[in-house]
Design a protein that fits this description.
The chain has 416 residues and is of the alpha+beta class. The protein has two domains: 195 residues, no CATH class; 133 residues, Histidine kinase-like ATPase, C-terminal domain (Heat Shock Protein 90), CATH 3.30.565.10. The protein is built from 14 helices and five strands. Strands 1-2-3-5-4 form a five-stranded mixed beta sheet, covered by helices on one side. A hairpin with a 4-residue loop joins strand 4 and strand 5. Helix 3 runs antiparallel to helix 4, helix 3 runs antiparallel to helix 6 and helix 7 packs antiparallel against helix 8. The longest helix has 82 residues. The two termini are 49 Å apart.
């Protein structure tokens, strides 16, 4: 039965499965309420005592008489069996066997005997169920010998006892299987809900990590420009007024853009990664000239060579990743090779992939030593984050000194 239900659930509509699991998760477990258990126990005891109590009332009112001593035994045994039903949950097999033995000479105890066997079938394993059913059939056979029916053959009554026992066991097994199925579906619903919560939290964490990486890439570029121009003003306090004004304008513009981009990112973090991040325009390959122009205004010597026929056909994720590679390369060049010429090359075609290369000459050791005091600070994790970004795009990232004496940052990105 469980496999059939699982097959139907597998082919059902996902919304229907979700609604069913939600219903089962909220539905109370069977037999979990003590009040409900006590109510069912009271009903079972009352039903079991209905026949003997009715017989006692008939005797008291004179509507019937006891014709033979065996009827007194029947009445007394049935009266004893009724309260035993109350403890059938605690000792199902024992109570069922005791009631069956007492019912050997008690016709009025048949209801209690059936209830206790049904309880064993619901709550116990097959071995205990088989044992209780065997005692039920054996005591029924003995009863038909002790008190045979004059109108029905023995084999018919024996067959009826077997069919009754089989029906009770089948009914109890059905209830047991149904409860197990509901419990498994309820557990599945709980696990699915927990898994959904984990996926939501993981998605939020990944989104926040991506935004933090975006913040590093953007602000590192802007702040490096600020540091470079501020250092130039500090180094040349006697510069012409127009140069000082131009440098101050670049500092003001870079600071304004950095604050604006920081405000956007913080707004996304406060909104838990909502629509604001997707609505904010992201840089693409077509924005490289503007990036290089901005760096040139800061005094950097940059040679840009874009060998792509139509940059607009480059996928957004590839163009955005290429932009970040160039941005990180220019930022690192300003940090570690100030004043060195930088060459940026972007080439590729559909099917071959996009190659982005940023090269700059390594500074002399003396320049590194003399310039260490005003070195632009950094966390040293920009290349690591860039490698993760390129890896997520399905590409490869290489960096390090080359044999020609320059530093080379190269990324290959798939372009299908």
């Amino acid at each position: 039965m469980g496999s059939a239900v699982d097959k139907r659930a597998a082919h059902a509509d996902p919304a229907t499965n979700e609604a069913m699991l939600t219903y089962l998760a909220d539905r109370p477990e069977p037999d979990q309420s003590p009040l409900r258990q006590r109510a069912v126990d009271v009903i079972c005891v009352v039903v079991s005592a209905a026949l003997p109590v009715g017989f006692w009332i008939a005797l008291a009112t004179g509507h019937t008489e006891v014709e033979e001593p065996l009827q007194w035994v029947d009445l007394i045994m049935a009266t004893l069996c009724a309260p035993l039903v109350w403890w059938r949950r605690r000792w199902p097999t024992t109570i069922s066997v005791v009631v069956s033995v007492l019912a050997t000479v008690a016709t009025l105890a048949s209801i209690a005997q059936g209830i206790t066997l049904l309880t064993v079938a619901v709550h116990r394993r097959p071995r205990a169920v088989f044992f209780a059913a065997a005692v039920f059939v054996a005591t029924g056979a003995i009863y038909n010998v002790v008190r045979p029916s004059p109108d029905v053959p023995y084999w018919v009554t024996f067959l009826m006892v077997n069919l009754l026992a089989a029906g009770l066991v089948a009914w109890g097994s059905f209830i047991k299987a149904r409860r197990a199925l509901i419990a498994s579906l309820r557990d599945r619903a709980r696990r699915a809900e927990e898994e959904q919560h984990r996926r939501v939290e993981q998605a939020r964490q990944l989104e926040r990590t991506r935004i933090a990486r975006e913040m590093h890439d953007v602000l590192a570029h802007r702040i490096s420009l600020l540091s470079l121009h501020a250092g130039a003003l500090e180094f040349r306090p006697d510069a012409p007024p127009d140069e000082i004004a131009r440098a101050a304008g670049v500092i003001r513009t870079s600071a304004h853009q950095a604050l604006q981009e920081l405000r956007d990112v913080i707004g996304v973090l406060r909104a838990d990664g909502g629509e604001a991040e997707r609505d904010r325009p992201q840089p693409t390959l077509g924005d490289l000239p503007a990036l290089v122009t901005e760096a040139r205004r800061a005094g950097a010597t940059i040679d840009l060579d874009v060998r792509v026929d139509d940059p607009d056909t480059v996928p957004d994720i590839v163009g955005r990743t290429a932009y970040r590679v160039v941005q990180e390369g220019l930022t690192n060049a300003r940090k570690h090779a100030r004043g060195a010429a930088v060459r940026v090359t972007v080439s590729g075609d559909r099917g071959e992939g996009l190659t982005v290369e940023v090269r700059n000459w390594l500074p002399l050791r003396s320049a590194v030593v003399t310039g260490s005091a005003d070195q632009i600070p950094g966390t040293g994790t920009g290349i690591i984050g860039l490698g993760e970004r390129v890896g997520l795009a399905g590409g490869r990232l290489e960096h390090g000194p080359s044999t020609a004496g320059d530093f080379r940052l190269t990324a290959w990105l798939p372009w299908d």
